[in-house]
Amino acid sequence: MKLHEPRSMLLATILIASLSAPSLAEEKDTVVPAQELKAKTDYCKTCHGLSGQGFRGSFPMPRLAGQQPEYVKNQLQAFIERRRTNPVMFNVSHVLTPAMLTALSGYFKDLNPKPLGGAPRDSLAVGKKIYEEGVPAAEVPPCASCHGPDAKGADAFPRLAGQLHDYMIRKLTNWDKERGQDKANPDNSAIMQPIAHNLTEAQIKAVAAYLSTLE
Ligand code: HEC
Ligand code: HEC
């Protein structure tokens, strides 16, 4: 198990360094007036919850509170370029100016509401073990090696702590159909692809339930 850690981190570092370099270079921001930012974040909160804690509507709206700015920015760009398919978030994001996109990406980091909860609690111990040790027999590295020991994420690695379990189950189950959809322009979603693919349905449910309880 320990063997996986340096290798997966190295792979991830190389991929992320090579893939996100252009977007970092084009960062030249003007400041967004506070009132405009508030109007926009109020709009985000109608779906993502008043404290960004997530919300269950006809489908789960993910938690954004505490999310890593670089990850948020990458996802908004992926929605705009349709590398990540979601009709709702395409409509929301393609109208954003570059300055607003940057301001929004950092906005949710400092929100820290309690997890929304609601996951079944019967497989939390199994989920914790998968998170910390991976599934060596299926070549799944420890999630913690990339998402961090406390699941708070870092840079392009998303926070998973407190995320809605039903949202994560849907994302991990549909990874290939929703992410990395522009084959000519591969992105960080390629790092998670084999991991999502190699987990069984029961393992996905267990690890998602465990993560949804973390503060
Ligand atoms: C009409 C509802 C709605 C509104 C308004 C909305 N979102 Fe979303 N957002 C969603 C849904 C639904 C998803 C999940 C998409 C999926 O399942 O892939 C999502 C996903 C996201 C994600 C990806 C999260 C992750 O963990 O990968 C980000 C980032 C995001 N939204 C940011 C925003 C921001 C910023 C705003 C405001 C400018 C906003 N959203 C407004 C519904 C909404
Ligand atoms: C080698 C590094 C690595 C490992 C190991 C890893 N992940 Fe990830 N994970 C990532 C990256 C990078 C992303 C963001 C992909 C993107 O930007 O499209 C991600 C994204 C995710 C997402 C989507 C989050 C969201 O808000 O939509 C989930 C859920 C997830 N990982 C769960 C897991 C679980 C569960 C494990 C362990 C079984 C795991 N990851 C192991 C690198 C990793």
TrEMBL record:
<dbReference type="Pfam" id="PF00034">
    <property type="entry name" value="Cytochrom_C"/>
</dbReference>
<keyword id="KW-0408">Iron</keyword>
<keyword id="KW-0574">Periplasm</keyword>
<keyword id="KW-0732">Signal</keyword>
<dbReference type="InterPro" id="IPR024167">
    <property type="entry name" value="Cytochrome_c4-like"/>
</dbReference>
<feature type="signal peptide">
    <location>
        <begin position="1"/>
        <end position="25"/>
    </location>
</feature>
<keyword id="KW-0813">Transport</keyword>
<dbReference type="InterPro" id="IPR050597">
    <property type="entry name" value="Cytochrome_c_Oxidase_Subunit"/>
</dbReference>
<keyword id="KW-0249">Electron transport</keyword>
<protein>
    <submittedName>
        <fullName>Cytochrome C</fullName>
    </submittedName>
</protein>
<keyword id="KW-0349">Heme</keyword>
<dbReference type="InterPro" id="IPR036909">
    <property type="entry name" value="Cyt_c-like_dom_sf"/>
</dbReference>
<feature type="domain" description="Cytochrome c">
    <location>
        <begin position="122"/>
        <end position="215"/>
    </location>
</feature>
<keyword id="KW-0479">Metal-binding</keyword>
<dbReference type="InterPro" id="IPR009056">
    <property type="entry name" value="Cyt_c-like_dom"/>
</dbReference>
